């Protein structure tokens, strides 16, 4: 497949690109600084401005089979990037005739009643931005979406390849594990219309996804 990734220089994107290209997919990585996108066979880096209008974004992603939104402003541009940037990319996907959309979100972003969790207290504004992006994807589009909601992201050289789904509290997630889940759901139709609330755990990723 030809896959477009918004946020192509992020911590998750580096591992996601590796996973996707290892599986034979072609990746177009959009980023503010495309020169910083990891250099690998099968990867094309392009400039991406999430402040651009929907028509411009649709032209940029045209011809892709699937779109990932893994961009993030790290709290610096929550409304324009994390919320409205995601929404515009969804709208652009529909304009461009792309059905498959995979969104990296945040644990319990769609459940404000759980934001009192001490592990989420410092990212309330981020979760508010993600709440509106997630809700738009669910309720205002006809996309074949999957929303991946991990807890806190932890740097690691490699992942365990084992996770838990349907977690009841915010827990740590190694970045390689999150990227592996994002890559694994791409062609799994049983993940369409699903919110995957995840953490590191004891179940192999493929096995966990097959239970959905």
TrEMBL record:
<dbReference type="InterPro" id="IPR016040">
    <property type="entry name" value="NAD(P)-bd_dom"/>
</dbReference>
<dbReference type="InterPro" id="IPR036291">
    <property type="entry name" value="NAD(P)-bd_dom_sf"/>
</dbReference>
<feature type="domain" description="NAD(P)-binding">
    <location>
        <begin position="7"/>
        <end position="188"/>
    </location>
</feature>
<protein>
    <submittedName>
        <fullName>NmrA-like dehydrogenase/reductase</fullName>
    </submittedName>
</protein>
<dbReference type="Pfam" id="PF13460">
    <property type="entry name" value="NAD_binding_10"/>
</dbReference>
């Amino acid at each position: 497949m030809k896959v477009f990734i918004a946020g192509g220089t992020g911590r998750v994107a580096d591992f996601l690109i590796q996973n996707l290209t290892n599986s034979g997919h072609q990746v177009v990585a959009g980023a503010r600084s495309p020169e910083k996108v990891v250099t690998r066979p099968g990867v094309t880096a392009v400039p991406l401005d999430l402040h651009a209008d929907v028509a411009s974004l649709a032209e940029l992603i045209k011809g892709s089979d699937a779109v990932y939104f893994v961009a993030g402003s790290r709290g610096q541009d929550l409304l324009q990037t994390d919320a409205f940037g995601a929404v515009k990319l969804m709208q652009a996907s529909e304009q461009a005739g792309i059905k498959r959309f995979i969104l990296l979100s945040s644990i319990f972003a769609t459940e404000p009643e759980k934001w009192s969790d001490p592990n989420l207290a410092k990212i309330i504004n981020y979760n508010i931005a993600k709440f509106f992006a997630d809700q738009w994807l669910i309720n205002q589009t006809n996309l074949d979406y999957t929303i991946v909601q991990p807890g806190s992201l932890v740097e690691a050289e490699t992942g365990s390849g084992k996770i838990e789904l349907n977690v009841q509290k915010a827990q740590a997630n190694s970045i390689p594990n999150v990227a592996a889940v994002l890559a694994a759901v791409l062609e799994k139709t049983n993940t369409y219309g699903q919110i995957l609330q995840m953490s590191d755990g004891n179940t192999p990723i493929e096995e966990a996804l097959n239970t959905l």
